[in-house]
Amino acid sequence: MIREGVVxxxxxxxxxLDGPTPKHAQLREILRELATAQLPPGAxxxxxxxxxxxxxxxxxxxxEAIGQLVSEGLLxxxxxxxxxxARPRVxxxxxxxxxxxxxxxxxxxxxxxxxxxxxxxxxxDTAEALGLEPGxxxxxxxxxxxxxxxxxxxxxxxxxxxxxxxxxxxxLTESMYSLLxxxxxxxxxxxxxxxxxxxxxxxxxxxLRVQPGxxxxxxxxxxxxxxxxxxxxxxxxxGDAYQVTMPLRTQAGTTGRPPEEVAP
Length: 264
Prior knowledge:
Elements: H1 4-10, H2 23-38, H3 48-55, H4 59-72, E1 75-78, E2 82-85, E3 90-93, H5 99-105, E4 110-120, H6 124-130, E5 138-147, E6 150-159, H7 176-184, E7 190-199, H8 202-208, E8 215-225, E9 228-238, E10 242-245
Parallel strand pairs: 3-10
Antiparallel strand pairs: 1-2, 4-5, 5-6, 6-9, 7-8, 8-9
Helix pairs in contact: 1-3, 2-4, 3-4
């Protein structure tokens, strides 16, 4: 294992060789081995200065090697702190479950920090999704969702006030789905969810402890209970911490043949 305390002493003892393989590619593979086989998730890499001294390369070469591994999701940069090995991604399965329930299923400790709430007229697209008249108020809530202390998602949502009167006076750090069912008898039964990609703006990046411009997975979920709309929630998930898995099959069912080949 590389120890920062001995890097400077060794200086260029491990200098990379000139040859057909560029030095940034040689260093990338050395750091890949370090990140995948020697260091635990969340461990700090030696500083850029220490790596330049140990391997006899420029800081630009070090940054290029690290940048490629960041793009692959093996390393993460934290502003003002350094570069760290990435934690395993949480595999998101697209079913109608709360964040709290999903984390508990995975053996992780779910935490919620309420960032703000209010009763306000929602934007037109949300008013339409919730079946509200223009200008009618809804409950707005924004929360930071964590797992084992690590911020994973920023959630900004709107809730129909008729479905949960007085919702904003409840404990909003608990599972929203459990709260709705326990206090209001509202069990969400159906949802339409859209997934897209965005770059983190400055505020979302600060909350998620990532660099501005970092890739995020964005989920918009419009959920109903007894065919009545209840929530319109958007969640921004860290792209370096999440991946989405979904079952797929042909429209033909289990035949394995494209639909046009299936006999009527």
